[in-house]
User: Fold these one by one.
Assistant:
Number 1:
Amino acid sequence: MSKKESAWTRFAAWVNGEHEPAESRLFSMGMGPRKERRPEITLPKREEKQRLHGFLSWYPVASAVIGVILVGILLATVLAMPSFGQVENPTNNEVPAHYLQHTREETGASNAVAGMILNYRGFDTFGESCVLFLAVSCVFILLLRDENNTSQKDLEQAQRREQRRKRRQDVILQEAARLLSPFILLFGAYMLLGGHHSPGGGFSGGAVLGGALILYASAFGQDAIRRFFNEKVYNTVRVIGLMLYAVLFGYYIFTGANGLENHIPLDYGGLILPIDIAVGLVVACTMYGFYAMFTRGEL
Amino acid sequence: MDLIQRILENRFSVTAVILFGIGFANLMLQYNLVKKVVGFNIMDSAVFLLLASQGYIEGAMPPIVAEGAVEATAYINPIPSGLVLTGIVVSVSVSAFSLALIQRIYHKYGTVDLRELVMRTEKEED
């Protein structure tokens, strides 16, 4: 027991960067003293430079030729494809027919697109949510502004900009935001909750919700939105959205694969409605995260 | 005459290919990194246009099915719409990530022009 605990504490220390494993050479990223020995890069450096300049000079010609050839091939392909909008095209085969005919009794959604992406192909959409989650995490890693990666001058400049913005507040923007953001939030919630029987759903509803947050933040400043939507709430909401999706869809797949009865009623969109909400949370957080990172570098 | 007929029958696909070419040329020939990202997004839009046009059926309804027995050919094909949704999500993520990278590059080197970047990295090596 104690051994396991110590292994766990060592692992936690390693994750936090306080402990170096025995083979630190494998995990460290070139933190040691720089090696003096320079293998034969130094000798043909001039040639290397010339090769680079040569590449940059013929590169436009080559890429233009490649582009023209590519477009030619694609045009030939496209002109050989079946014509636009005909019922007997090979894309309209038995798969969409099955989706359209059975989506009501199998998924509980009358919107066939929502039924398809969130139920028949739910793992695909789960991957999409993970892509969004990872993208916003990567943008955080690259752009989050703190004492470690920003010079003092830049920090002071950002503070001055913020103060100047506070002194000169935009009345039109603020009044418009005060008037509009409740309705935009309401419309986003409507799209989010009605995705199973009307156009809308998690992605579009979440984008509208994120737009409302962005409008509010740009009108009243980051401090106003931080009162109810700070970094902790933000991270909690987006993790909960992803986890909710994973747990719900895992339960659904598990019961279905084992022939068990799942206790999800089909009356109000079945599985689609809670998954739509989960996706909407993730998308709204992603949109707002992109805005906050690109404008101010902090949440 | 026959060629014009084919082009008119596949007008959306042909437009998509032309857009793809414009985006590809932008991606390859622009030296400004932000313009490269714009070209990439034009390419994405071309792919979405091609996919979405493949699912359309002349005179059919949007795929929100009514109650009761359903004639599948009365609605458009729902699958390309779902695929376009996937593509849009990936496109947004890739654009945001590359723009963040470009912002870091600008902070470090003070330029987003590819030729100047090459020159500055060379100067740094010397």
Number 2:
Amino acid sequence: MSGIYIHVPFCKSKCTYCDFASFPKEIGKMESYFACLYREIEGRGRQLKDKVFNTVYIGGGTPSVVDSKYIAGAIRQVKKFFTLTPDAEITIEINPGTVDENKIKEYKSVGINRFSIGLQTGYDDQLKRLNRVHTAKDFLLCTNMLKGENISADILIGLADQTLDQVKKSIDLAIAGGVKHISVYALTPEVGTPIYTDYLNGELLSDDEVADIYDGIVSYLKEKGFNRYEVSNFALDGYRSKHNLNYWKRGEYIGLGVSASSFIDGRRFINTFKIDEYLNAIIYNKSPEISSDVIEEKDARFEFIMLGLRTADGINVEEFNANFNADFFDEYKSVLNKKAKYLDINGNIVKIKEEYLYVQNSIILDFIEE
Amino acid sequence: MSTNKENIRNFCIVAHIDHGKSTLADRLMEKTGQVSERDMEEQLLDSMDLERERGITIKLTPVRMFYKAKDGKEYVFNLIDTPGHVDFTYEVSRSLKACEGAILIVDATQGVQAQTLANAYLAIDNDLEIMPVINKMDLASARPEEAADEIENILGIEAHDAPRISAKSGLNIEDVLEQIIHKVPAPKGDENAPLKALIFDSYYDNFKGVICFVRIVDGTVKVGTKIKTFMSNKEFVVTEVGVFAPKMIPQETLSAGEVGYIAASIKSIEDTAVGDTITDADNPTSQPLDGYKKALPMVFSGVFPLDGSKFNDLKDALLKLKLNDAALSVEPDNSAALGFGFRCGFLGLLHMDVIQERIEREFDLEIITTAPSVSYKVYKTDGTELMVENPTHLPPTTEIDYMEEPVINASIFTPPEYVGPIMELCQYKRGVYRDMVYLDKTRVQLKYTLPLNEIIYDFFDSLKSRTRGYASFDYDISGYQRSELVKLDMLLNGEICDALSIIVHKDKAYERGRQIAEKLKEVIPRQMFEIPIQAAVGGKIIARETVKAFRKDVLAKCYGGDVTRKKKLLEKQKEGKKKMRSIGTVEIPSEAFISILKTDNDN
């Protein structure tokens, strides 16, 4: 199956850790942005008319910050030019404090059936420090409007002075809001973001402290019925994100809008990160892509392994062998031996043992072919 | 073109490091019009990049100059530049044999220093006329009177008429040129006698074969002369003779008193050993010249290619360097940790540094070097004796009766206020006090006997930091002494890492073991499992540190746009891992092997 990603590069204000393509000051270009986005949807849809898609994901930025008519328009455009399965998972990222009953009504009216809320933490002082525009209370107001819906929440760990107990309380808040899915990300200080200064000054938690919180959270969430199905993702039974699973299964996806990335027909490509460049490209009928790589078989194999081992399901050896006309157990014999201690091999399923999922880079490295 | 011997002056310049030797050489060449100011490249004779960057002279470089003196006659000057560092003393003594005089430069701000003394004594031993010159008069802190007094008092060489110059600004360089004529004797020798030429250096040229740097003592040599070497007893026909100006310029002949080069399609540098005498095969001299004492390597270190597949490249590089460096010794070595490589012998630490840097730069090879060692004499219980340069070759304790280690006579020059700290350092380094001489009110000479293996660790650095760089140091090997030595092994995750083993004095083993374990803890990155680092002597653990397992090694997010980024990140990490060596399951970075040297012994 395949996915569609749509990027909305607008938000009220930039969070201190954000290094995504998101431009609070460019909000005036919204009208032209969506006009171009619709045009790109049409163009790509025509190119890919033979493919069937089963997920759509509207991310950002903060998609809920723009007038819902633009979002509804985008979904209609997708449905018009792409082939979606009838039960397609259609997700939108929203931030507390940026939605109201009307917006939600309009989202639902075009078929959006999954809502991913950026909670990050249940503590207002921490939210303020991250330059988030909402409070913990806003989160509950938001989930109240979404009662009964398929909701997910994002939680950040590694914040300055954060404790395991605080993260547990934030999770409690999310569960109180009725979420079916939780993503827990470790704060990654990227160069150029304001939080990088905090990192340089040693104010963020150390890797060991983050690991302590992570381990605590994994078991806490398990108690609450949320099972880890990928390094950062936890869900009640039946509520895994189909869109994200597609990435780790190395399925195809088309990215639309600024900075969106795609993987279609063995080629990975990315759209420009600059709004003006994007608008110009679309208006003048040029490609908004800034990079394009045809993935060689050797890299494809490694991607399959590297992505698969992130998930609790691991990699399916039969699938690997069929995809690459290979004999996995034979070709990777030496690394499988070398890393046996960290791997769980059961029939055709190879996965990283639960307790080593958070130190997987060193394991995956050895699968890179010379 | 042969010059009348009366008008030839052969001399070298000796000095403590940084006292201005190469700068004066440049200035002399410029004044005699050997090179125009326009072509002047800083420190012409230091041709290697490395020499220029570090401000040191490593190789000998002779150069011929013409000087029209105030007496109206034209003179030929042959200057042989010499290295200033203690490691290269043997090169200095080689060039001295080709000269009649030596310019002794003394820095007017620093006065006589350790190598001023060492080099001046070398020159005196070789019966050279010493001509003092006081340099750096352009500096405000110059105190030429005191420098002159020091030269007279310490060396017993008259210095009141020494030219006071600034090699940097060119001040009074003319005085130096004039004094050379009057103070340095013209060469003796008979050009009609059978050929007798001293090889004082040589190098291998890809087109001409071995180029011998020679001083003609008697006779004449020209293209076509059939020559013979004494030691190797081989014959060659001369294809080219010439002088250095400073590039090689072919001449018709070289005669008694002259300095130049001979090429004779010689294939192997071994056939024309430095110090050997060349004579005419058809009309040989009966008596060869006194040769040189062969320079013996004193410091040994393992040299391994970072990338194991580059073993043959490393071999080629070392053999090429060895062609022009008789003091470098090379033997194949094999380490469980580092694979195939070489055990190399060097004259000293600087020599080692220089060779390692040349391998990396000139041959573009990345290498791993192990902690330097010295050569120990091991007397076994079965009555046999062997030399051990590699700690892993040390026989089991039960087979050793006793051991001896090389010791040096050290001479340290220092302002009096640092005597205390230096004595403390020498004592800490197992030194035995010999003597202390107050040279004048600003200078003290300390004499110590020290084990060489204490010097090769961090003695220079410690001395520098304790004396804020004011002390100078020189040494010569004085022999071997019996000592209580043990092999210190380092265990990583329970396995001995042979490349980290060192031989130390029994009383130092515990401390060194602890320091190395601490240092390794710093340089070994955390891995998936806990790594115990242990120091052991004879199977007994004497120190332990632990590298904790890492807990987080994963990218927090990995969605559509992150795939390529993550793949690249992992590939980069994989690339970085290639620079690591595996000891069992433990991966250690290549710098770990040398970093154990840099433990801070000052506490």
